[in-house]
């Protein structure tokens, strides 16, 4: 379990800036990536600027967390985390193809180790419910399988043998399916949990926004026509999800996801009730499964570290109540 200092969670302390980051990540990494943008257009320039804002912001946030681990007796995790940041940065600027391939492989390895070091203690914790444990397992499955898939693809660029290519192709296909299905389960969980925890608990406020979201969804279907189906495919592609099931399943999940996201956040803003778990889980979902994008991996790593931080806070609160009862 990651041990962080109390009040070290950015999400728990800065609700305004958390909402801003969510908006930037949503528009830049899901909406804008799902549409074709002319490289000469002003929107392309906006996405370029937003990309660097996200990269720098989450780089600093993640670096601060790894730096803080040095003072909480987690030196190994801090070292692995800083190596992840170094390899990710070098990957952005490497020019020579052979050097790039080696750096990319080291980046995926450090990310794999980092993911295991953060999530396994969370799964093994005795202070969480079985439902929470199940979600953490699916988070681990989705990230781990996608990471292994990208690692294998990267290794193929260095190890150029027929036997390795044959074996790695089989493993890669399996990992792609596992990561896509696991992430789909997480999207369904996102819909169910926040309908229950945010929308239903504030039904008087959320009902209006839910109706607006449904009307907008229906209007989009009629306005875009057949292009709407291509947009749905583009959304899942932006998340790094390969579509193996019937298209209708993915369309329903994506529409429900957008309705839940819009309704939950608007309800939270209007009711002035802040839900850190909503922010964190939304960031994680929007980061998707694209392991090659350094900005998206920073977002995902930040999200799971925030999950661990909230879990620690809940554990501390439970211990405090127990001690007071005694």
List the helices and strands and how they pair.
Layout: H1 10-13, H2 15-31, H3 42-69, H4 75-93, H5 97-124, H6 130-156, H7 162-199, H8 203-224, H9 227-238, H10 247-271, H11 276-287, H12 294-325
Helix pairs in contact: 2-3, 2-11, 3-4, 3-12, 4-5, 5-6, 5-12, 6-7, 7-10, 7-11, 8-10, 11-12
What can you tell me about this protein's structure?
By secondary structure, this protein is mostly helical. It has one domain (10-314). It is built from twelve helices and no strands. Helix 2 (15-31) packs parallel to helix 11 and helix 6 (130-156) runs antiparallel to helix 7. It is globular and about 60 Å long. Keywords: Membrane, Transmembrane, Transmembrane helix. The chain crosses the membrane at residues 16-37, 43-63, 75-94, 100-123, 135-154, 174-195, 207-235, 241-266, 278-305.
* Strands, total number: 0
Q: Helix and strand succession? A: HHHHHHHHHHHH
Q: What is the count of distinct domains?
A: 1
The coarse overall form would be globular
Indicate the structural class.
mainly alpha
Radius of gyration: 20 Å
* Regions with little confidence, pLDDT below 50 for 5+ residues: 318-323
Count of helical stretches: 12
- Nearest-integer average pLDDT: 86
Helix content: over 70%
